Amino acid sequence: MAELRPSGAPGPTAPPAPGPTAPPAFASLFPPGLHAIYGECRRLYPDQPNPLQVTAIVKYWLGGPDPLDYVSMYRNVGSPSANIPEHWHYISFGLSDLYGDNRVHE
After folding, report:
1. What pLDDT was estimated at residue 22?
2. Among candidates 80, 82, 100, 85, which has minimal Cα distance to 32?
3. Which residue of 10, 63, 87, 91 pairs with 72 in a disulfide if CB–CB is 3.0 to 4.6 A?
4. In the chain, which residues have pLDDT < 50?
5. Terminal CA-to-CA distance of the chain, rounded, Å?
6. Are 41 and 51 in contact (CB under 8 A)?
7. For residues 24 and 13, what is the distance between their CA atoms, to the nearest angstrom?
């Protein structure tokens, strides 16, 4: 459980997650909005390919109550020189057209 805490030692590394460098056939499985967000997260946090993530059981576009499809959590070690303490970086997925097909917004 220590690897889940911001001050804990990093956990084991996993194989690279799909992102901008993924083979085209595999990358096409990811909708454009998700692909863009995952790619940027991989760039910012290359050592965290499998972050903590929560998801809505029933997506908003399927009649669920939560407009966020996912929330990912990344450990950020901060920057002592910039006076930024260690913290968790929460990335929300939703409130936009993640899938590129207007299922949430026309």
Report:
1. 52
2. 100
3. 91
4. 1-19
5. 42
6. yes
7. 24
